[in-house]
Amino acid sequence: MNSSRRQFLETGAKFCTAAIVWTSNATEADVYVPFQGEKTTWHEGFDRYDFIMGDVTGAITPMTAPASEVTSFGIDVSLKDGRRRCVVVVPKKAAPGNPWSWQGCYWNHQPQTEVELLRRGFHIAYVAPDPGRQGKAWDVWYKFLTENHGLMKKAAFIGMSKGGVNEFNWGVANPDKVACIYADNPALFDEDFAKIPELAKHDIPLLHVVGTEDWVLRYTMTMEKIYHQLGGSITVIMKEGVAHHPHSLIDPTPIADWIELHMHPVEANRPAFADSTYTKTHYYSLENSYLYLKEEDTYATVRGPGYVPSYDRYTRNGSSSPPANFQADDMSIVVPQKPAPGKLWVFHSSFLERDSAVAMALLAKGYYIVLPPISGPGAVQKQWDEVYQRMVDNGFATKVVMEGTGAKAGESYAWAIANPDKVSVIYARNPLMRSLMSKTPPIDNLAPLAKARVPILHDWWWRSGTRNSAGRSRCWWPRVRVTSHCRARIRSPWWISS
Hints:
Elements (H helix, E strand, L loop, with lengths): L2 H16 L20 E4 L3 E9 L5 E4 L3 H6 L10 E8 L9 E4 L8 H8 L3 E5 L8 H13 L6 E6 L1 H10 L6 E7 L5 H4 L2 H6 L4 E6 L5 H14 L3 E6 L13 H9 L16 E6 L5 E5 L4 E6 L7 E8 L9 E7 L10 E4 L8 H8 L3 E4 L9 H13 L6 E6 L1 H12 L4 E7 L17 H5 L4 E5 L3 H13 L3 E5 L14
Parallel strand pairs: 5-6, 5-7, 7-8, 8-9, 9-10, 16-17, 16-18, 18-19, 19-20, 20-21
Antiparallel strand pairs: 1-2, 2-3, 2-4, 4-6, 10-13, 11-14, 12-13, 14-15, 15-17
């Protein structure tokens, strides 16, 4: 192509792109559509495209960044005459699926995570936020990037300080548009805490990077407690001896790794029967570990998925005569990362405590943990029978481990007595030998277990129930083992193989 024709085409292209105006009525892009307009460069020579958005019309028009912003990598974030600035930075080679991150506030502040994501093929996007809640402008910007240019339908959000307010208050209103949230020393609106269950319901993972000396740490501590109890996935990196600044990590690799991992979540070993009526949550402990940050020359206290084993949990809501406007759990199943041969499983009749050393040890050994229904009348044998049959019909072991604490241990005994040929072992902690499932107290009907030679282990703090069951069981068969006053002795399920 001769130089004059090339110059003509380039001039024509610049003229056309300068006239491009996008509105929210644009046709959705089925594939990636490159950004148009005059480009400048951002860190490490990545192409940067700038835009102006009209708040009233929603029109987005290309513009050229001023020279001062090109050299400083910054942007004028002020809202002027009903218009606001927007920026997109493009990777040299886009990753599959066109993932992108959305900076919630403070463009170009500690941008090392964004630079690392660009190296990995992410687009980086920003729109000047409103002073309070984020609404129409953020909605329009999202549509522009996903519908007009084909970026991934779910974005990774990055919010520092006030950016935490922005990413959470838009995220809770649009959880289906969020892949994950990285919050760095974030603040939150108090009213948004009430909406956090929406994020957990949509299985949106959270990463908080915080300083131990920061006044906003209380927001992360509150969020962690709420999210953990909801079964949401939250990971915390707490920099020791660091205040509100500096944000991020000098080496952003742990943050970028976490974001990249959660753009394409994988559900391993999901049971075939756990269909769309089951809600996925996460089961993990909040045990601390410690990470040396070489560049900062300090340690970080870290906890949550990525630093402790995390297991997928699937729960189906039932209608087992709960009060009006409430739901009862039909059943739950916690899935090991590497199932043991034979698809072994545990009937766990008690509430599943987050710090259960036994449950964690069983999951680590490849056992599935199954929680039976919770209903108004209490434990109902027919419902437990249905869960057992559902498991067996799906290829799980025909003999199950029975586990329970207190009165729930009594229910485990009652079901085992009615089904001794289906039980491999019974483990009970502080068992109370009575049952709503059976008219006969389990303590008075242990003969079927002894006849089936079912091994029993009790971990107890009080003596009467255990002494009675142990004594009566030994009358028929002496495979009863008791530990006393030391839960630490039950840290791995050595007894199951006995």
